[in-house]
Design brief:
Blueprint: H1 9-20, H2 23-35, H3 44-63, H4 68-82, H5 85-95, H6 102-120, H7 134-140, H8 167-176, H9 188-199
């Protein structure tokens, strides 16, 4: 074993080159690896892994002075046979009748991967209502017809009611049906809250605009 010194560096390189630096052995190993590449299973990740390994081995051969022309014709049918049927069909359709070269095959596989990635990152705006909470699902489905709290008819909002237009009558309906003074909903808790606030002497929330009345009588300064 050579001591780890600067003087022995070149000798160490020479020993390693003689032992492992056999280009033909490395070329054979790369070609065997290409032959034994695991077939993609049809998923994008498996196709990407297949493409990355293939590119690594081919570039290794190029680094050893082997151009695509020297082994491309042998490698093309091997790669095509390993590709999933749908991928092979798609890239062949794009290629048409033109003969394959190793470069064009590599580029076609890369384009197919990019197309699949673009498809996976496309935002799907269709919501699955079965995964939504009941309230959210109800909101996302077709809206219910507007229901008027005053005339009890559908098709218009309380603010657009043409049947019950008198403010006093509207106020009576709200009190009779125990509606919320603010939202006109039938939530009893809202009505009790208003009563509790009024009984306690506190200022109640501003009534709904549909029940506002303007007192036309101006209080006299002598009143009181």
């Amino acid at each position: 074993m050579l001591p780890l010194t600067n003087d022995h560096y070149l000798q160490a390189v020479d020993v390693l080159t003689k032992r492992y630096g056999k280009p033909q052995t490395i070329i054979n190993a790369y070609m065997k690896a290409l032959w034994q590449l695991e077939k993609p299973t049809g998923t994008l990740n498996s196709l990407v892994a297949f493409h990355d390994n293939m590119e690594g081995y081919i570039r290794g051969l190029n680094a050893l002075g082997k151009s695509d022309d020297t082994f491309g014709d042998l490698l093309i049918p091997i790669i095509l046979e390993k590709l999933p049927a749908n991928v092979r069909k798609q890239i062949s359709r794009d290629k048409g009748d033109e003969a394959w070269t190793l470069t064009s095959l590599r580029e076609s596989i890369q384009r197919e991967i990019e197309a699949d990635r673009a498809g996976e990152t496309t935002i799907d705006f269709e919501l699955d209502l079965t995964d939504q909470p009941p309230a959210t699902a109800a909101f996302l489905t077709t809206s219910k017809p507007q229901h008027c709290a005053f005339c009890k008819k559908t098709g218009h909002k309380p603010t657009d009611c043409k049947v019950v237009t008198d403010k006093t009558k509207r106020l009576e309906i709200v009190k009779r049906d125990k509606l919320c003074f603010n939202c006109l909903s039938g939530t009893s808790s809202c009505f009790r809250l208003q009563i509790e606030i009024q009984v306690s002497g506190l200022q109640a929330q501003t009534p709904h605009s549909n029940m506002h009345r303007r007192d036309t009588k101006t209080p006299s300064r002598n009143e009181g």
